[in-house]
Amino acid sequence: xxxxxxxxxxxxxxxxxxxxxxxxxxxxxxxxxxxxxxxxxxxxxxxxxxxxxxxxxxxxxxxxxxxxxxxxxxxxxxxxxxxxxxxxxxxxxxxxxxxxxxxxxxxxxxxxxxxxxxxxxxxxxxxxxxxxxxxxxxxxxxxxxxxxxxxxxxxxxxxxxxxxxxxxxxxxx
Length: 173
Prior knowledge:
- This protein has a 5-stranded parallel sheet, with helices on both faces.
- It has one domain (about 45-170): Rossmann fold (3-Layer(aba) Sandwich), CATH 3.40.50.2300.
- Strand 1, helix 2 (about 55-70) and strand 2 form a beta-alpha-beta unit.
- Helix content is about 45%, strand content about 15%.
- Helix 1 (about 5-25) crosses helix 6 (about 155-170) and helix 3 (about 80-90) packs parallel to helix 4.
- The chain is α/β, with parallel strands linked by helices.
């Protein structure tokens, strides 16, 4: 996760983020002047907020770090119930949802995805699972992506970025 993106990739990513946020009408924010993980300041950057749901503490920390290093803001929870409560309170602030399927006791990632889509009908959903892939066609929401564990970090970034791009293109039409 310590790889740095070349400056040309940063320029392309920043341009893509600006286009995406304009098409989705995502708010602009002025962040603090803390150092950006890629060596830039975060002032005046666009914000893409993701909801992450993972019950395994270490996997959740790894995913948060990966997503943050790739320019996303992350709000994370360990349970479906916490995530659903956050969606009920603030669904419009999220540009996408990444959720594990089996979340221990309580609700499932399937329920998180379904609830997110009830709140925001076009929100991108990425499901992550070690053993529930066969249930995706019956429990997953349409136009979602499923990634099987274990996976390489680039798969997660590609999945959420692809869905966000598709959503921005659909909103632009």
